[in-house]
Amino acid sequence: FTGNNIGKQVAIVLDKKVFMAPTIQNKISSGGTRITGFANKQEAQDIAAVLKAGELPAPIKIAQINYIGPSLGQDSIDSGWKSMIFGILIIFIFMIIYYNISGLLANLALFINMILVLGILISMKAVLTLPGIAGLLLTVGMSVDANIIIFERIREEIRIGSKVKTAINNGYNRAFITILDANVTTLLTAFVLSFIGSGPIKGFATTLSIGILCSMFSAIFITRTIFLTLSNYISIKKLSI
User: Fold this and answer.
1) pLDDT tens-digit profile of 128-137?
2) What is the pTM assigned to this prediction?
3) CA–CA separation, 117 and 128 (whole Å)
4) Which fold has domain 70-239?
């Protein structure tokens, strides 16, 4: 090929793009060649490294480009943390005012839930970003929602005259299907986002998935255990459900 095309250019194509087009000076018979005309030694070394590496095994596609300064990013994360803490405090106050001692138990379960979520994220060495904080906030909301559903079911059992343990067990059993349905549908959505989403979306989906699993555990198992334990010593009316 080279012997019949001396004086002509030959294109070197990498990743479907013409990388360079040197002119054939002589026939390549020994399996090696020499390319001249570079501006400096560094340019020649860079070209040699690219040619030795060859094409990439898979094409590179730009999924997302973000430009943000380090100080602005830190300010956003700090604001996100402050918003989350402020929101949790408001939820704590609301639960205590509306449900009294039962609200205090729900707050304890929520606190345990947050410890579980953060513990899992730390064990995974995950970096908590703004989408991750948003996932935590949504987790808190769903956890509180689950506790409210449970408390309202227990209240209904109390109104019809059920005994202490019966009211607790029936309340949790009646609320379980509703809580499971809401959390499973959200969990499926989070799984889909984790597969088709980009970096920030995957962070949100991962945090949300972990939070949903932990919130179900804390709302259904932890609070139920506490209620049944207290019911052996305290009348359920004193819990002000």
Assistant:
1) 777 888 888 8
2) 0.61
3) 11
4) Multidrug efflux transporter AcrB transmembrane fold (1.20.1640)
